[in-house]
Specification:
Layout lengths: L1 H17 L7 E8 L3 E8 L11 E7 L6 H16 L6 E7 L2 H4 L4 H16 L4 E10 L1 H11 L9 E5 L15 E8 L3 H20 L4 E8 L7 H13 L6 H9 L5 H16 L7 H13 L3 H14 L7 H14 L3 H14 L7 H19 L4 H17 L1 H4 L2 H15 L1
Parallel strand pairs: 3-4, 3-5, 5-6, 6-7, 7-8
Antiparallel strand pairs: 1-2, 2-4
Helix pairs in contact: 2-7, 10-11, 10-12, 11-12, 12-13, 13-14, 14-15, 14-17, 15-17
Organism: Chryseobacterium culicis
InterPro entries: AB_hydrolase_fold, TPR-like_helical_dom_sf
Keywords: Signal
């Protein structure tokens, strides 16, 4: 183990120099290199000076029978980061084992766990959150389960991900702190069929202890074999690992049960996230509008208005998205036939939108358009004059791209304009 500690001292000095570099988006370095294992760390480089104190969750990827597992997992996380914008940037830790039958089982478990523990301690000196995820497949998934089952070692990680473990644990210990485990296996091929019975039995043991500290997300993919279980499990396991950051999952719960209090649960989720990051998380105007529109979608207009009432009280008029609250309230009030309130709110939307708003060139024409629609709707002019205005606005829908591309508002206004023409 002397070589291990010497390696740590050398790399500590190297990392302190590397962390100040701004030449790339990721800094990679070998933190441990012994005769049994290599541990490589990929650190995000702050994009600017304001982000230099930003902290990141840590994602450990153990090697597996599928040699490309690191690339598969990293590329999928990168895709979800760019596509959904909800999954945070992470520090990746790649763990390569030279003898998988030695370090993943028996006495080797403690040796490898010691390396991981020292890696965590080392990274905490820099920009790592105390939020560690570990993922394994096959033999390394068995190691993951051993860690989760050890009363002392289970404190190292907040989330454990095990794809198709080659073996589980005989006696399950009740953890002293929360353990979040994602477990999956497939149903095709010799490996999966031989592991299936033991994995299902292990799942039953977790359910039988009925401990609130041991949380399990379990997936069975009947068409997956021992290698395809990886891509089939990735989406669910990544979302499970980063659930405190993911808001869209609340919409799924709301769709299943529209009595689900999405705003209350978002506040609870942010409370958890504040505990993880030690950073205050306030609900933004965009998020309030997102929630209000879910109620608008099920035609609970009064609830949508209630959510925006809280939004006006709980957010700052200086926020560049503040205008969106008023803009959407105008739609909600129209639906409950309070046209004067709709008009009042669209005027306020026009007041609070500024040219500094990223969407100004797109959003301002929409506000003006909706304001014109309300003027037509409440006009006392003769029918011929009103119909001319209706035709003009309908033409605008066809010709003005900034307006015609907003399907939600266009469909809403078009519907009422056409009704007015009848």
């Amino acid at each position: 183990m002397k070589f291990f500690f010497k390696c740590f001292l050398i790399i500590t000095a190297m990392m302190s120099n590397l962390l100040s570099s701004q030449n790339g988006s990721v800094l990679s370095d070998t933190l441990v290199n012994t005769k049994n294992a290599k541990i490589i760390v990929d650190l995000p480089v702050p994009k600017n000076s304001s982000a230099k104190n930003k902290k990141y969750p840590v994602f450990f990827i153990l090697d597996s029978q599928e040699k490309n597992i690191v690339d598969i997992v990293k590329s999928n996380i990168s895709y979800l980061q760019n596509f959904g914008k909800e999954i945070p940037e992470v520090i990746f830790v790649r763990v390569e084992i030279y003898d998988r039958s030695k370090l993943y089982f028996g006495e080797g478990v403690n040796e490898l766990a010691g390396m991981l523990q020292k890696t965590i301690i080392h990274l905490n000196k820099y920009n790592a959150l105390n939020y560690n995820v570990i993922l394994g497949h096959s033999n390394s998934a068995s190691f993951v389960l051993d860690l989760a089952n050890d009363i002392n070692l289970s404190k190292l990680f907040q989330v454990y991900i095990a794809y198709s473990p080659s073996q589980t644990v005989d006696k399950l210990n009740i953890p002293s702190q929360d353990v979040n485990l994602y477990l999956s296996h497939g149903g095709i091929g010799q490996y999966e069929n031989s592991f299936k019975e033991e994995t299902v039995a292990y799942k039953g043991k977790i359910n039988s202890i009925n401990s609130p500290k041991f949380k399990l997300k379990y997936d069975y993919f009947p068409t997956a074999n021992h290698n395809t279980i990886i891509p089939m499990s990735i989406y669910n396991s990544i979302n499970y690992a980063f659930d405190p950051w993911i808001i869209s999952s609340l919409e799924t719960d709301f769709i299943v049960n529209n009595k689900y209090d999405i705003l209350k649960n978002l506040k609870a989720k942010y409370h958890v996230l504040e505990h993880i990051t030690n950073v205050s998380h306030e609900i933004s105007p965009n998020e309030y509008v997102y929630i209000a529109n879910l109620y608008y979608g099920i035609e609970d207009f009064n609830k949508a208005i209630s959510v925006t009432d809280e939004a006006l009280a709980g957010t700052s008029p200086k926020d560049s998205d503040y205008y969106k609250i008023y803009f959407n309230r105008a739609l909600y009030y129209f639906e409950i036939e309070d046209i004067s309130k709709a008009k009042e709110n669209i005027i306020l939307a026009k007041k609070y939108i500024t040219k500094e708003t990223d969407e100004y060139n797109y959003a301002y024409p929409m506000i003006v358009y909706y304001d014109k629609f309300l003027d037509i709707y409440i006009t006392t002019a003769n029918n011929a004059d009103r119909e001319k205005k209706i035709i003009k606005l309908l033409e605008l829908i066809k010709n003005e791209k900034k307006i015609s591309n907003n399907n939600l508002l266009v469909n809403f206004i078009k519907k009422h304009l056409l009704e007015m023409k009848k």
